[in-house]
Amino acid sequence: MSKQTAGVHHITAIVGHPQENVDFYAGVLGLRLVKKTVNFDDPGTYHFYFGNESGQPGTIMTFFPWPGARQGRVGAGQVGVTTFLVPEGSLGFWKERLDSFGVSVMETERFGEKFLQFDDPHGLKLELVARKEGPQSKWSFNGVPAEKAIKGFGGGILCSAHPARTMELMESVMGMDKVEEDESFIRFRTSGELGSVIDVMKNAPGPGRMGAGVVHHIAWSAVDGEDQVQWKQLLEREGYHPTPVQDRQYFTSIYFREAGGILFEIATDPPGFDLDEPLEALGEKLKLPPWLEPHRDKIEQVLLPIEVRERKADGK
């Protein structure tokens, strides 16, 4: 083992109507919309980034919202559940809050930890877990005080078509430590404080289908561009086929599909979301990369208008 990932950089999912997406992740979960841009490969589609006050790696949940998108199905080759991390002692606050917004919550346990599991409005499977680790968010919005706010990712549950091969990659190539096992899951831990706990289902589920309510890919952190190149070279030596480096404006990325069918990305921590707007104004304007700026008028005509707004517990 020559390298070790610090953990999850971001997770990207497909959802439905963009305003419903913003209302839930900002209005209900209290996350900050840190960047409003477009899918660089499909500029007629938004790409939203939510996170803590600065969009720190390990806090970034991103979405491609497609109104009327076909519903997906969670299964093999996907991230089955995305786990958010909240402060110790705050699960009661979150259960009451989700209940007040009409979100159906199931309480469950895994490896001695309690989780609140629920779906977002488009069927994406989420859960909350309380842990001491991870820096406290400084963001407060719509009744979620900073001391109760989501810190970032706790990790997630991976549904692999070939669990043994996925776990071999995680342990022998990506440097994750196998720490616990029960009848259903094997737990891995990375060195970071956020996005550091990954549970892999031991038995392969049925095939998944991409669509609304499904994770598109999971990204792991690279310290910088040099570290990313080292990851690319390591993956190639191990028989994987990572893409060339892609410029995503706020980080650079390489992608590869692991043997269990899950799309993995390795993304750089820098340059970050304050590259093109100040920290205090993150997410307020539609930001486009230089190569799309000449097409702004056309793009803005296609995109549906959205706003970050407060929501009342009765859903209004």
UniProtKB/TrEMBL annotation:
InterPro entries named among the record's database cross-references: Extradiol_RC_dioxygenase, Glyas_Bleomycin-R_OHBP_Dase, Glyas_Fos-R_dOase_dom, VOC_core
What is the top-level taxon of the source organism? Bacteria
Q: Where is the VOC domain?
A: 7-131, 152-269
Q: Which residues form a coiled coil?
A: none
Name of this protein: Glyoxalase family protein
Q: Which SUPFAM superfamilies does the record match to this protein?
A: Glyoxalase/Bleomycin resistance protein/Dihydroxybiphenyl dioxygenase
A Pfam family that this protein carries is Glyoxalase
